[in-house]
Amino acid sequence: MSLSLRIEHLSIRAGLTLLVRDISLTLTAGTPLTLLGESGSGKSLVMHAIMGSLPDGLQAHGQIWLQLPGQPAQELLRLPAAQRQALWGRTLALLPQEPWLALDPTMTVRQQVQEVHQQVRGLSAAQARQQALDNLQNVALHDAVVSQPPVAERYPFQLSGGMCQRVAIAMADAAGGQVLLADEPTKGLDEALRDSVAQQLLREAAGQRLLLTITHDLQLAQQLGGVIGVMRGGELLEVTQAQQLLQQPRHDYSRRLLQADPGRWPVRQPSWTDTGGQLLEGRGLSKYMGGRCLFSGLHLRLQPGQITAITGPSGCGKTTLGNILLGLLPADQGQVIRTSGLTSLQLQKLYQDPPSAFAPHLTLAQGFNDLQRRHGFSDKELAVLLERLGLHPSLLQRLPAAISGGELQRMALARALLLKPRLLLADEATSRLDPVSQQQVMLLLGDLCAEQGLALLLVSHDQALVARMADQVVSLEAHGVTA
Amino acid sequence: MNSTVVTSPTTDIHAALAQAARPQPSRWAQRLGWGLLLVVSGFALLGPWLISADPDRQDLLNALAPFGGHDWLGTDPYGRSMLARLAHGAQLSFLLALLTTLMAVVPGVLLGIVAAWRGGWLEKALVALADMIMALPGLLLVLLVIAFAPGHFIPLCLGLALALWVEFFRISRARSAVILQQPYIEATRMLGFGPGYILRRLLLPALAPTLLTLASFAMSTAIIGISTLSAISVGVRPPTAELGSMIVELLPYYAEAPALVLLPSLLIFLLVLALQLISGGRKS
Amino acid sequence: MLRSSLWGTVLLGRALQAVLVSLLVGSLCFALMHSLPGDPAMRIAAGRYGPDAMSLQAAESVRQELGLEQPLLQQYGRALWQLAQFDLGHSLVTGRPILEELQVQLGHSLWLALASLLLSLLGIPLGIIAGARAGGWLDRGSQALAIGVRALPPFVLGLLLMWLFSIQLGWLPPAGFGSWQHLLLPALTLALGLAALSCRVSRDAMAEVQQSAYFTFARHKGLRGLTLIQRHGLRNAAIPVVAYLGVQAVYLIEGVVVVESIFAYPGIGHAMVHAIIARDVPMVQGTVLTLGLLFVLINLLIDAACRWIDPRQGGTR
Amino acid sequence: MLAAALFGSMLTPVSARTLNVVGPWEMTGVEASQSGYVFTRMQVAETLTAADSQGHIVPQLATAWQVSEDGLRWQFQLREGVSFHDGTPLTADIVAAELQRAHQGAGVLKQVPVKAIRAEGSQLVIELERVFAPLPAFLANYSTLILAPSSYTAEGKVSQIIATGPYQIQTMTLPLKLELKRNEHWWGGKVAIDSASYLAVGKGETRALMAQSGEADLVFSLLPVSVAALSRDPRLHTEVVTLPRTRMLKLNAGSALFSDVRVRQALSLALDRQGMARAILRNDKVAANQLFSPAMGAWHDSQLAPIPRDLDKARALLAEAGWQAGADGILQKDGQPFQVKLLTYSNLPELPVLATAIQAQLREVGIAVEVAVGNSSEIVSQHRDGVLQMALFARNFSLVPNPLGTLLQDYGPEGGDWGAMGWSDAQMQSSLQQLQVITDAARQAPLQQQINQTLQQQLPVIPVAWSELAVAASRQLEGVQVDPYELSYHLTSLRWKSEE
C-alpha cells in the first residue's frame, strides 16, 4: 500500500458545540491538498486533529487513517496520546505559523536542525551536523557570499521571516516526516517571499510525501496546485482539482472566494476627482532608521475622497511614512501641513493585526461604551453603523479574541467611523484577512470615500489590491522613492 | 455591497478557542482563597470586638497556660490571652502590612509606568535611582527612617516601603513597556482618550494580576520585616500586640510552648495563601 | 567586534553604577548618621565599653578623641576625600582599620552567600517540575511551601533548623564558624527563603515557556520528555530566573543580617547592624559600601550570564 | 581582595580535646578597657589582684601589698618568675607603664585619686592624692590587666594580646571568637586542659542549643527559660548564682513626678516582684527586697522581709501625694496626667520583658507608662540633659569587687548616670566618705547598713530583681566553679573526666 492519509467523517466539538462538521478527505502522495477558508472556518482544527494537538476541551470524532508504506494502516484518533506524539517529527511534520516565533530564540538555526537528527533520529553529533548543513543547503539557506556569522550559525532573530520559514521546512526534512502539515505558511510574508515559500513546499511535495496546507491565500493555493478543499463555518463545502476549482467553482462560497481575489475585483469607478481641495500635505519628508535612509525629499498631497496607496517591499518604510503623515512619528526632515480645522481626532488608523488593536481584557461593548462616554454619539448611530458593516450586535458582548479577524477589523472600522474621520490610514489592514473579508472591508472603505469624502491612505504590499483601489500611488523602494 | 449578518459557527470557533487558550485559575482555588480571606480578615476585623479579653492584661501567675482553658488558645509568658492578642495583632499587622504595601505599590507602579511611558532621561534617572536603592541594604534604609521617630507606625511603614517599592517599579516598568508598545494603546490615543483613561482602563487591569501576587508577598515581607526589626528592638513598642513582634516575644519559649510561636506565623501564612489563591498565583 | 563594544558599554554602565553607589553611600551614611537623633559620642562609647562601663566621662573622652565636635561640613569633606582615596579609615569602636575588619567579615559572608546560593538552586528544579505540570499537586504543594517559608521570620526558621539538625538528629553543630559543617545550617536558613522565591520564579518561567510557540514546535518536531525540557525549556526558562537572581542577591544580603547573629557567624551584615547601633560611621560606610559594590558585581555577573544565555541581548537593547 | 578574603577565612580544624566556652559577650576591640573581661575570664591575661568567691581581695600577679600610715602610698610586691607568653619577664617597670596607661584610659582606674605610679625595684608603688582604701579591689578590674610591651604597635595601640595567663591566644576572630592553647610556662604550674576556645553567641536560644548539642562544654548566661530544660538534660550540669548586680528602676527624683518620696514608695509597692521573678526570671530567689543582693556580703541585710505587692497602700500613698484617678483611670494632678516614659535597652534580653510587665503593673495604680527600647547610651545622655523620667537597667556593683567604687559613682552628691538622679542624702554622703578611709570590716558594717537603709527608705532607685548568672556545663567536666564576681571562669581548675 502506498502512503496516504484518509479522513473519514471527522467532527470536532467543544462540549456541546459542533465546531467542525463531518469532513472526509484523502491525501495521496504527489498531490498537494490545500484547505482554503477564512479564519475560524475550522481548517486549522482539522490539521490539529490529524496532528493530535487539539487544545484541551476539544474532542475529535470520526476516523483518520494513516497508511504508511509497508505497514498496516492505523487509525490516529484511537491511538493513545503517547503513541500519537511518537509520530510527531518522524511521521507527521508540522510547519508552524509565523515561524519566527516558533524557532527557539536561544539556539542557532543549525543547532535546531541538528538536534532533530541527533535526538529524533539518533545520529552522532558529527553526522547530525553535516546532515543539518545539507538540509539547510537544500532549502537554499547557505551563504551566497561569505557572511559573518554564516547563515547556519545565526539566531532566529537575525533572519528574515522567509528564511525562518525555510528553516522550519529544513527541520521537517530532517525528521523525515512523510506527512507535511503547513499551517498558514505565508502569513505575514510579502509576495516575493510567499512565492519562494510556495516553491519550496512544492519541492517537498514532489517526493514521496503528503502535503496538507492550510491557508486563506488564493495565490498560494493556486501555486501549489493539486487538490483544493474549501471550508467555511466548520463545513467542507467542496473538494476539487485546483484547476477546476479556480476555473469553475461549484459552490457559491467558493465562487465568492475566488472573486474576492483582488486581481478579479471589478474595476472600481473612481469617485474622486481632483477638486484642488487639500487635506494634508507632506513636504520634503525624509526619514532615516538605523543609519539607513528610508526615503528623502518626499512630496505628497492628500485630498478629500482620494485614495492614496503607499506600496513597496517589506521593510521599505511604508508604515513609517503613513505614521509620519498622521503625526504619530516625527519626520527627520520636511514637514506635514494639515488643512486648517483638521484635528487629530479626524485622523484615524486601521491596523494590520486586528486583535492587537483592541485591549484584550475589555469586551467590545465596554470599549464602545467608553468611546460613547468620551465622544457622545447615540446608540442609534452605532446600531446603524454596525448594520452597515454587517456586524451583529450580539458580537459586542464578546472579547476581541472571540470573534474573527474580519469581524474585528470591521469593528475597528466602526470605532474609527464613529469619530467622523476625514483621513483614515489602513496599514496593511486586510493582509491577514481571508479574501472575502478583505474584499468586504475594502469595498466598504471605497464606498465611504465616495460617500463622505473620506481620504484613505492605504499601506499595502499587494500590487493587485493597490491597482484596484488607489487613485494615487506612492511606491517606495529599498533605496529612494518613485512617486 | 450587502453583506449578510450572521452569527455563524465561524465566530463560535473563535469563542471556543479563545476560551481554551485563556488560562483559567481553577474555580475551587479561587473560592478557597476568598473563603480564607474572609475568615482571616474577619478574625482581624471583628476579633478585637468579639473577644472581650484585654490583650494587654497581664496575669503573671497564669503564664503560659495551655490550650483549651479559659483563654482558648492559652496565655503568653505574661499570662495575657493569646486569642485576644492574636486578634489585635492580626488587626494591627494586616493594617500595617496593607499600609506598607500601598506605600510601596502606589509610587512603585506609578513611577514604573511613568518611566516606561516617558522614556528618555527620565526613565534612565528613575532606573538609576532604583538601582541605587537596591544596592543599599534595605535594613539600613529602614533603620534610618525609623530612627527619626522610634516607636511610631508611619515611619516604620515608610521605611519598609522604601525598600519594597523598587520591585514594583521594576516589574511595572518592564510590563508597561511591553503593553505601551501594543497598537491598541496608540489606537486608544487616536480615539481621543487621555493618559488617565489608558492608565485606569488599559494598563492597570493588565498589570493587576502580577501586582496582586507580588503585593501579597510584599505584605508577608512587611510583617516579617517588622518582626526582624522587633528582634533588634526597633519595631513596635510593648505592649502592643503585633504578629511580627509577637513572634519575637514568644520565641524564647519555643521549647515550652512551641505552638505559641507558630500561631502568628500561621495567620501570616493564611493571609498570603488566600491572596495568592485569589490572584491565581500567576506571576507572568 | 560588535560584541566587544557591547561588553564595553555594559562594563562602563556598571562601573558608573559602582561610582554612583560609592558616592551615594558615602554621602547618605554621613548625612543620615549625623542627622539621626542620639549623641554619637554616647553611642560609640556604649558600643566600645558596654553598658556596665559606659559613663558620661567615657563619652566625653570619645568625643575628644574622634574630633566629633568639629563642624559637620569639615567632617563630611574629610570623609569623601578619604573615600576617593579608597581610605575607609578606622572603626570608631574597635579602632582597627576598616579594610582589615572587612576582609575577615567579607570572607565569611562570601562563603555563607555562596553556600546559600548553591543550596537555593535546589528550588529551581522543583520549580521547573512544578511549572512543567502547572496546576498539579507538586505545583500547589510547592506554592504552599514557598508561602510557608516566607511566613516565618528567618530567625524562627533558623532556630527550627538548629533544633532539628543539631538536637534531634545530631548531624550538624548549631552555631559557630570555622568548618563547612558550621556553614550548612545558616546557609540552609537563607537558602530556604531564596529557594522559595526561585522555585516560584522558575515555575512561572517554565509554565510560560511551555505555552510558547517555540516549545510547541519543538514538541511537534519530535522532541520529547527530558530532552525537550533540557534543550528548549531550561535555557529559555533560565532567562527570567537568572535575571531574578540579581534581586535574590538583595534578599541574601538582607537575610544575612539576622541569620548571622542567631548563628554567631562573623559576617558583614552582623557588623553593619552593630555599626549602625553604635554609630560607627566609618564602619557603616565600609559595610554598606562593600554590600553595595557586591551587589553591583553580582549584577554584572548576572548581566554576563543573561547575555550568555540569551543571544538576543547581544544585539538589541 | 575578594579572593584573599574568601580563602583567608578558611580555618584550621579544631582538636577534639578543646574546651569550648560560650558566652554572650562580643569582643568589640582588643583594648583592655573594651574586651579585657573576656581575656581575664578566659585566663589569658591577669591583673595584680583577684577576688575569692566571697569578694575578698587575694593575690594574683602581686603577692602582697601594704599601705603607709597616712594611707597615701601603696606598695605592691610583684610575683617572681612570671613571664609573658612571648618569654619576656614581668617587671615592675612594665607593670607601672601598664597601670599608667590604664589610668589615662577609659577604665575604672580613672576614679582612683592617683598621684603617681612608678616602679621601685621589684615593687610597684602607687601614690594617692587622698586616702582611698579600696585601691587593691580596683586592681582586680579587667581594665588594669597587664600586657607585654610586644602587644603594642609603634603608635601605642594594642595589636595583640601577649599576657601572663595560663592560656595564650592562638587565633582571634573579632568580635566573636578566641582560640587558646595552654601556656606551658605559667607561674601557677601546669593546667589540665590543653586548649580552649571562646565563642560569643548573642542569642540566648542559640546558647542553650549549643549546650544541648554538646557543641559547647561551658555556657554562660543562659536565659531563664532555658535553665529548667537544660537542668533536665542528663549530660549537663546547670548552676545558677546570684550576682552582685541588680535590675532597678531609676527615677528622676528631681522632676515633679517623682520628687515626692511617697510617689516613689507607691511605685515600689505597685510592683509585683514575686510574680516577675517567678514568671519571667523563673527564679523566686531573685525578687529584690533591697538594692544590694545577697552576693554583696555585709552590704546585704538578710533580716529584711520581702516587699509584698500592696496596691491599696500604693494608691493611698499616691492619693496623699495629690494624685487622683481621672476619667480614663489615669492619675491626675493639677490637670496633668501621670504619664511617664520608661527607657530601657535590649542588650540584656530580659529588660524589655520586665519593662512590659512593669508597664502593666503600674497601669493598675493609674500610671501610664510608655516603654521605649533604645540604646543603653540614651540613659546616660538623657541623664546628662536632665530629661530622663524613668529607666530600667541592670547595674553591676562588682565591676570592682568592692561596691564602694560604683556607689561613689552612682550616689555621689551629684547622683550618677546609673544611679540617683536629682536626689542626694547628706548622711549617706558622709558614710560613703568614711568608707573610703576605713579598712576595718567591723567598722565598715554599720556604715554599709546605714547606706542600705537610706536607699531603702528614700528609694532614689527602685530595686526590681537581682541578677543571676546561669551556667550549663558538660558532665564530662570536673571542677566547675562559677565566680559571682565574673572575674574568671576558673579554667585552670577544670579537667576532663577520665575517658569513658
Automatic annotation (TrEMBL), chain A:
Query: What are the GO MF terms of this UniProt record?
Result: ATP binding
Does the record's keyword annotation contain ATP-binding?
Answer: yes
Gene3D superfamilies hit by this protein:
P-loop containing nucleotide triphosphate hydrolases (3.40.50.300)
Q: Give the UniProt keywords, A-Z.
A: ATP-binding, Cell membrane, Membrane, Nucleotide-binding, Transport
User: In this protein, which residues make up the domain named ABC transporter?
Assistant: 5-258, 280-483
Q: Where in the cell is it found?
A: Cell inner membrane
- Classification via InterPro entries: AAA+_ATPase, ABC_Ni/Peptide_Import, ABC_transporter-like_ATP-bd, ABC_transporter-like_CS, P-loop_NTPase
Q: How does it sit in the membrane?
A: Peripheral membrane protein
User: Which Pfam families did the record assign?
Assistant: ABC_tran
Question: What's the family?
Answer: Belongs to the ABC transporter superfamily.
Q: What is this protein called?
A: ABC transporter ATP-binding protein
Automatic annotation (TrEMBL), chain C:
Q: What is this protein called?
A: ABC transporter permease
Q: Name one Pfam family in it.
A: BPD_transp_1
Q: What is the lineage of its organism?
A: Bacteria, Pseudomonadati, Pseudomonadota, Gammaproteobacteria, Oceanospirillales
- Of which family is this protein a member? Belongs to the binding-protein-dependent transport system permease family. OppBC subfamily.
Originating organism: Pokkaliibacter plantistimulans
**Segments crossing the lipid bilayer:** 12-33, 110-132, 144-165, 177-197, 241-263, 283-302
Check the record and name the CDD domains matching this protein: TM_PBP2 (cd06261)
Q: Which UniProt keywords apply?
A: Cell membrane, Membrane, Transmembrane, Transmembrane helix, Transport
Q: Outline the extent of the ABC transmembrane type-1 domain.
A: 106-306
Record's bilayer topology term:
Multi-pass membrane protein
TrEMBL record, chain D:
Give all residue intervals belonging to the Solute-binding protein family domain: 57-412
Q: Which InterPro entries match?
A: Peptide/Ni-bd, SBP_5, SBP_5_dom
Please state what the protein is called: ABC transporter substrate-binding protein
Supply the source organism's classification: Bacteria, Pseudomonadati, Pseudomonadota, Gammaproteobacteria, Oceanospirillales
